[in-house]
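job 3f2a | input accepted
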Amino acid sequence: MSRVDDEILDHDYDGIREYDNPLPRWWLALFWFGIVFGVVYVPYYLFGPGPLAAEEYAEEMAAAAAAMPEKKAPSETDLLAAQKDESRIARGKETFLKLCVACHVADGGGLVGPNLTDDHWIHGGAMADVVQVITEGVPEKGMISWKTQLSPDEIVDVSAFVKSLRGTTPANPKAPEGEKSSGP
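job 3f2a | predicted structure (184 res):
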């Protein structure tokens, strides 16, 4: 590597003299590499076969969706079977006592939320309606959606427990709300 002596130019600005030194070789090599890289990279992705970020994202999302099992709503037969399965009702009761007592009280009599023991239902009294309310929530009434926190089986279990509360006598029941329902 040869040493380059400083060369002073002939002009002077307010007593400051300017040097004219060549740039370091490593800097020039990096500069030219960047230019060559840009000349190859930009056409490859903008005009050539290289995928754009949006295309890669769409491909990855499609692959992830294909890899995930399809969630299907439980059938009416499954819901009716869950209502008769004591083990599912017991699991639903455990979940209910952890998550739902703040609004519905442990015996289902209602506090902030409605009374779950009477024949009156605000959003329908069928098992499918209860599953729908637990899954999607009722934001205007302050009930959150539980679909991100509970599995579909847990939602059905809680729904089975809620349906099992119908006809029981809570300690301090809230007044009936909604329309009278006679469904199972």
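job 3f2a | The radius of gyration is 35 Å.
job 3f2a | closed
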